[in-house]
Amino acid sequence: MSSPVSSALRKLPKAAPPPLPNDGNSESPSLKRMSSFSSRLSNLPAPPPPEDSPRVPPKPTSARDSPSLPPKPSAPPKPGAPPKPGAPPKPGAPPKPSDVEKPRPAPLPRPTLPARPMSTMNAPQLPGAKPQRHVFTRRRTTINHQQEASPEEDLDVEVVVVGTYPFDEPDTPANIRFEEGTENSPRPVVNAGSLVKLVERLTYDKYPDTKLVNAFLLTYRSFTTPSQLFDLLQSRWNIPEPSSNLDEWVQKTQTPIRLRVFNVFKTWVQTYFRDFAADDTLYNRLIDFVKTTMMKSTLTTAAESLIKYAEQGKAGEGLTFTQTVIATPPKPITPKVDSPSFLDVNPTEFARQLTLLEHDAYRAINPWEFLKQRWAKKKDQAPNILYMIQFSNQVSNWLVGEVVKVVDLRQRTLVLKQVIEVAEKCRELNNYNAIMELLACLDSSPVYRLRQSWAGLSRSTMKTYESLKELMSPNNGFKNLRAALRTADPPAVPYLGVFLTDLTFIEEGNSDVLHGTKLINFDKRRKIATVIQEIRQRQHIPYNLCPVTSVQDLILNSKPLEEEVAYKLSVQNEQKLKSPAALKAEKEALKAAAVNKKRLGITGEDDEFAGMPLEGLDDYPFAVEDSPENIQLSKDGQIKGATLAKLIERITPKHSPDPGFLSAVLMTYPTFTTSSALLELLRSRFHVPLLANAPPEMKKEYNSKRVVPIQIRIFNAVKTWIEKFGYHVVHDGELKEELLQFVDYAVSQNRLLARTGESIRQKIQDIPEVETDPYPTLRTSNEESSEEVGDFLDFPPQQIANHFTALDEIICNRIQPSELVSKAWLNEAQAPSMVANEHLGLEIQQWVGTEIVNQPDPQKQAQVVSHVVDIAQALFDMNSFNAAYHMLAMLKSLSAPLKLVWTTIPRKQQQFEAMSHLPKRNARRCLQDWAVITPPAIPAFEVFKKKLCAIEDSGPDFLDNEGQLINFSKRQGVADLIRSMLDYRMASYSVEQDAAFQKYLNTASIMDLKSVKAKALENLKDPKFSLACASVGSSTKIRSGSSSSGPTTTEVSADSIKEALMDLFTEESFQQLLCDQVQEQMGISEAMHDLRVELQEQVVLLGCRCGTTSVARGRQVAHEIIARKLLASPSDVTDWIEVDHEGVVYGWPDEEVHLNLLHKGTTTFLVQVDVHMDEDDVASFERIASLYQNSNPTSSSADVRRVLITGTITESARAAAIKGNVEILLLASL
């Protein structure tokens, strides 16, 4: 029997679907949700033989006739015609010999998997038992299959002879290529290289590259073997000694290289030990190398730790992932019989056991199985991927048989409903792989044609089915599924086809080597590693569930029906459709029920209760039908605006709660209501209207299907409120008391809530008080110490970076989400932690500025600036961006006074510019960079504050004039950003404050920012700080305490001096100083007055650019400059402002762009004015000008002139402007 899953992995025919058999029933749609995957993975095998089984009929393309029935087919087949490829045979006709499936082998065996780390939980605890502490551990998985590909069969291996030292060859384009734009940066990104050069970069002596190491170890089997990699690392360790300067060489070259080699081995053993577990020879080589070579070096302790890691891995104790959870697993719902059938198992428990089995199979997959499309080309090299596919096919085909073999129509509908309910429970468990296989069962030919069975399902069940199909839709590259995966909290079992699709596109769209060379295309491997890393992240965390052997045996020992047999049973048990008259009567009944339901004010509930009268509807605020006046949705179904009652209704649904939406409401509710009002609505929601005048059995069913689920959701919402957002109620004793009263009342009304109620009561009573310990500051004492505290340059950059990271982490961990909502940081009482962070940042800026400007000469200034850059780089490498932001911001604010100093340390200037997007608060780039980092991390809160302000100012708080329709799109954006920021606290740094450096800070001189700038300008009056800086590069040496490479001999050109002076003239304080000096000597002449006016105009423009001057004033000055330069009147200059919906100019949509227009006769001048312009500014101007011309097609290019007016412009920008026919006009020459 060809499985639904494997059938879906084949190409769908482009021809129209084949006609139906003469019984008038519709046939199944093929799995369109997997068709985008089919063309790439057509060789995926079905379960074990036969391979020549008939295909599943294709899915009709027409829409369904009614919301509760499958769609009607497009056309009936010709009687007696043989089935086309992908179409079912004629019902009742004997199958062709080639189409008959051979006898199916024994049921699929269990995979060889590690023992599930839930053995301590096999026996569920009794209610009321004290929770235990459980430690989940992921151990090394042993698979009884061939693990490593044979090089001559699977790889095009670059043969490297390791008899001599292969790493002496210098870098050239023939052996290594870097990513464009990074070649001259301090840390270029490797794009391609020979195997030797890649290993050399893994163990580079100048800096470590952990991202390169991880990507390499995940993908190296696609271009080499573990044995050859080991040879190269061993050779790299044994670097030949030089003939002279041995001590310096050991310190600067040998020791760093050997340390990098050790780190590569450590990562290989700790994270990817499966390579050694599968190869005893490789493992023995490792132990021998460490004991005979590493142990004899200076890295003895490191070597001992490496042996320890390897021995732990061999013993099955390494490669663990530990998660401590103080909670008992949910009590299993065991079947009442020893050998249950599918309907005997509760849908929730079936989903749990299916999830446990599939997660075991998922986490057994080795990383190298995803390389070079082994699942399709080298099938013996991807046994665990194929096992997971075969397991999904078996479950799907078995459930097809469970549906079609039932004779009774009502019972068959119950089986269909059970499959849908299991799929919905799998969604709650984040098991997306199971959802796909269950949908494959429902969309198979034998099941999909059962129109009468489908018609018996309630509308809510059909709505669930449709939502599951929408979730797993392949449209836009599985957009909905990817979004769900991003927001799903672990554990999870993703649908493997999504990742295999991505890997297939990467493999087929990128060559293994660069075109025309033999260099390994490492950019391709980096992309593959990103996908594999995403897969591995979800392999680590196990499920907190108890195994139920009887249910797992039912699944593993299932026996699927052959498709021919299943299709015959489907036709036999459901031959005729209802008559048209019966269908019409049924539709009329559904319409009448809907009208009755609307009259009763019930929304989103089961149809079976629609006609029943309810009690207490008048006082129930949630009985109002959805309408544009109370809720507004976006095209993708997200809430744009809603009343408070509708928000409460959505966070306490009967089915499928959304944890992300619940968190967003609870995080931001203080911006649109109060805690008391929120609790009052939750109380009202708890009183679900009851059935009136109904039989006891009906009341009991109504209570279990409608009342209890909503009440459970309410309790879960209160629990989340207290657990994650308890800071809202910590100081409100009255609210605490009201919460306790509500919990007691709810438990008295529904004893099923007793256990959860006790948990909530305990959490309310245990809400931690807000910490009152003082926040850390730069100084802990102002007392002068008699001890020698040393000089700033005596402390290594990493030591200082560790100290500031420890300070920032204390404050970061105390920040509450409420401090980030509605700009609360502007009020110290509402946001004490954010204010403390701001104060510490200000102190860091003041300290850095003081250290720089207080130096006695330019040489010392260059040393200090270099040291600060190294500290910022160390903070960047630690993902500690907050302190780095304030240091770089200080350097940026002193850029003009330090211009000549920068010219003497060009390498440090390059490092600074590589990090300069941070002090510029480029939120888009910063957030993109931070989205891929792994905790621990400390973001720059100033960047987040800028983005939060942009969201807060993006629209009104309410979408109506009455203040009832809450603008929740804005709240959702704020909540998403805050959640991403708080995610960085998932892990902690292992650094502490440095006592010696703290003593130095306590005695250091620190000036305020105003004094720092004044001192910087005062230094410029000193002759030794002016053009004498040109000699700094040839005479400065860095102190031994710094790791900086130091300035090198540099010739300072006249252009660089001129550029430095131009920057000085944009400083208002310097302009005043200059004018005062001139006035003292000769008085203010008319020329000097004009010059001063020109300079002030530049300052205004610069102020507009920095946000310190009003936009209106900036545009007015720009108009005056344009009029003067182009001989026109300022009133002739106008502003063209447009919203760039497509993101043409800056790369992101809906950004406002601005251009100055001047019309003179038949000519239109498109003008932009700025103090300084670089190549990016010219490119942006050209895109804005093109956008204007495209928006105004009536203006021909011959009548349009593009003009830039600027004070200074870089050479590259000048060349770009000339190339683009852009005219350049300079402001007054200085």
- Average residue pLDDT: 75
Shape: globular
If strands are numbered along the chain, what order do they take across the biggest sheet? 9-10-11-12-13
User: What's the count of strands?
Assistant: 13
Q: What is the first-to-last residue Cα distance?
A: 85 Å
Largest sheet descriptor = 5 strands, mixed
Helix % is 40-55%
Low-confidence stretches: 1-154, 317-326, 596-607, 1027-1053, 1082-1086, 1103-1110
Query: Helix count, per DSSP?
Result: 48
Oligomer: single chain
Can you offer a commentary on this structure?
With about 1250 residues, this protein is mainly α. The protein contains 48 helices and 13 strands. β12 (about 1200-1210), α48 and β13 (about 1225) form a beta-alpha-beta unit. α13 (about 385-405) packs antiparallel against α14, α14 packs antiparallel against α15 and α38 (about 940-950) packs antiparallel against α39 (about 970-980). The longest helix is centred in the middle third of the chain and has 30 residues, at about 695-725. The N and C termini lie far apart (about 85 Å).
